[in-house]
Write a structure and sequence with these properties.
The structure is a homodimer.
Chain A lengths: L32 E10 L2 E8 L2 E6 L4 E5 L5 E3 L12 E3 L16 E3 L4 E6 L3 H4 L1 E10 L2 E12 L2 E10 L11 E6 L5 E5 L24 E5 L20 E4 L7 E3 L6 E5 L7 E4 L36 E2 L10 E2 L12 E4 L6 E7 L2 E8 L7 E6 L5 E5 L4 E8 L3
Antiparallel strand pairs in A: 1-26, 2-3, 3-4, 4-5, 6-7, 8-9, 9-10, 10-11, 12-13, 13-14, 14-15, 16-17, 17-18, 18-19, 20-21, 21-22, 22-23, 24-25, 25-26
Chain lengths: ~400, ~400
């Protein structure tokens, strides 16, 4: 249908793709997400932080912190990574004190789920070159989640400063958490998992509900690791820096660039994977409340009836294993603006979540025909959406609008 | 961003909503589906067939075939419905020979899942006023699915002619099927369910695989009920009119208005709900192959290794109970053009499926915050999308683009 529109200065291409099209093109507004591999051979990449449109730091869970130039393809290992990093290594699980782990293929050994998790730039990185890394720190047979601040200088981490350690070091091999984001308030938010594989190992006061235990919690810290004066008050017994409790295993946490709201994903046990909105002082309920089931028959949590729990904004009825989510504000998919994009490990698809304020209106599962263990989505400074895959030959994939 | 575009005749609003907007409006292209109830008090409506933009026949599963004028709100029962219609009535299931049915609230009685199913207009209805109804026909304690052709004259069904009966009449109370659509070839396609509740009642040759049994099949007939000469050949033993076999419980079946492809939905037992593309001679596998589980432990189907099964194009991992699907070609949601819209009873949401040829690219679950048992979606001649809800106070709901 042709329209004559006057005056000329009202003519705005406000809905098209990033490709120049005459306004008569019937494909304006159509979006056809497709994948283009831009990097391969990454060792189970977990996170990425863009220094510029084509320069990115990539944290490999089973490898190193890398600097990559997407134009030249230069790939350099960042020097100076903390030496207490626990590499993935084989552990003989038949002798493990917590013994109820899944067995590896030989019936005995399991690849330790350790390594580097997140890398996040300080909001003022441009000037101070500060960044934050989360990883598994090892002491003998024990380990825990640790966050270190560093100054990036000539592709080397300098001035290393521990910001947070989820001590004590323990024997558990799972659910370290390690997701991080800065908030609109300039504070650093960190997720720490409860470190159990099965509820059979829960103490009488479950870990994620125990205010004296650092595991199973979300923290809010000043950028130097000190405790903000306006954190929620969990009482005198509580470990410092607490922002929310009742967390089983959360890895993805992200801030809405406009509203400042923080949203996070969480892994349930049997189903029960969730999308949550972060609120000060909230108790997300694990393991008292879960939207899924428990692993292993017969676990009955204590009721803790005096506690008030915060329900997820969404939970899936099938296992998705949602991780490194992000809000989308790019230009390739104008219709996705402000949607929450969530990668899933288990089924290997990407989820696009439409929100109106706090309410989830719809969810679209993308790439159902082209699945890959999806670990993290991150938006570059020039608004492009990238996906990291959790594979031994891991990839960084550009999600582009291939409308032709 | 302002652009001067010349010459003027290239300026086309090709991506907007149906509301007039200046091209500078940033909401062009945004779609915000919302619900507007246009009718209430329908008795578990199952299907609708539009006579004109604002005139519609509605088949109530637990009521009547109605004529409704959406402008004047006139609601008239169509006279002359066949008198062998089995109303929903209470059956004492503790005495039922197939005894393994779910119990009603009193532990004994169950509301018989009978009534009127589909109403479909002949492709040349404008001239011949022919339509087709599917419903549960009753003979004493036995019933089956029946399709009758009628001529609509002054809000009365006349010249009733049985087109198809899934005889023999049997005791089973479930899974009648009854979905119907005309194809691009002018033939009538009908789904008939297998009529079992649990696999414990399967004979050694399962019903849906038994070529001599009319249940659990999809049929292709001439508009007078005779058998087309170009139907697939299932052999001499096969019941007449067979087009596909291996169907458990399919209610939604629809034709793509451009390609002529026919797609149908199907209910699995434990999960295993599917989207299938209809192909001549196909065996959709039930109960030999299922994407879900079986009801009741211990059922082992025969292998039937000489048979070749057709996999679904999609199956859900959670129960959705998908039913009366349709392809969308309206104008309120230009970005949904040619998408498959599928209502779900069980979780009460609407699914929007993006296809490229036969491949499902993505699925969006809509109205997750506003669930209602969704039975059928149907598009009016003026391109509006309506939803029928499976409730005792059932509704017809307009799905509109409420971008403001």
């Amino acid at each position: 249908m042709m329209k004559m529109v006057l005056p000329l200065f009202f003519i705005v291409v406000s809905c098209g793709s990033s490709v120049e099209r005459p306004l008569s093109d019937p494909k304006i507004g159509i979006q056809r997400p497709s994948k283009r591999v831009v990097l391969k051979g990454l060792k189970r990449p977990w996170s990425a932080a863009f220094l510029a449109a084509n320069e990115v730091l990539i944290a490999e869970k089973d490898g190193d912190l890398l600097y990559v130039n997407l134009s030249t393809k230069e790939r350099t290992t960042i020097k100076g990574f903390p030496d207490d990093l626990a590499d993935s290594l084989l552990v003989n699980v038949t002798e493990h004190p917590l013994g109820t782990f899944p067995r590896g293929a030989d019936g005995k050994k399991l690849k330790y789920n350790a390594g580097i998790f997140d890398v996040v730039l300080h909001p003022d990185f441009e000037n101070n070159h500060k960044l934050y890394i989360s990883y598994v720190s090892r002491k003998g047979e024990n380990s825990t989640t640790k966050v270190v601040q560093a100054v990036l200088e000539k592709k080397t981490l300098t001035q290393l400063k521990p910001i947070f350690i989820a001590d004590p070091y323990t024997i558990g091999l799972f659910h370290y958490g390690g997701g991080m984001t800065f908030g609109a308030d300039g504070k650093l938010y960190i997720t720490i998992g409860e470190r159990l594989f099965t509820e059979a190992n829960q103490p009488p006061m479950p870990i994620a509900q125990d205010l004296r235990d650092k595991r199973g919690k979300i923290y809010r810290l000043n950028d130097d690791g000190s405790i903000p004066t306006d954190n929620p008050n969990f009482g005198d017994e509580a470990v410092p820096g607490l922002y929310a409790i009742g967390i089983r295993a959360a890895q993805g946490i992200t801030m809405h660039p406009k509203t400042g709201e923080i949203w996070f994903s969480e892994h349930g046990t049997r189903q029960g994977d969730e999308i949550n909105k972060l609120e000060a002082g909230a108790n997300y309920g694990w393991p008292i409340k879960t939207s899924g089931g428990y692993r292993g028959a017969g676990y009955t949590p204590p009721k803790l009836e005096d506690r008030s729990f915060t329900a997820p904004k969404w939970y899936w009825l099938q296992t998705v294993a949602p991780t490194g989510l992000t809000f989308y504000t790019g230009n390739d998919f104008p219709l996705w603006k402000d949607n929450l994009i969530i990668p899933g490990l288990s089924r290997g698809s990407l989820w696009r979540v439409v929100l109106e304020n706090d309410t989830i209106m719809s969810l679209e599962e993308l790439f159902v025909h082209d699945r890959v263990r999806a670990r993290k989505v991150v938006q570059s400074p020039d608004g492009k959406l990238y996906l990291l895959t959790d594979e031994e030959d891991g990839k960084m994939i550009l999600i582009e609008n291939n409308v032709d």
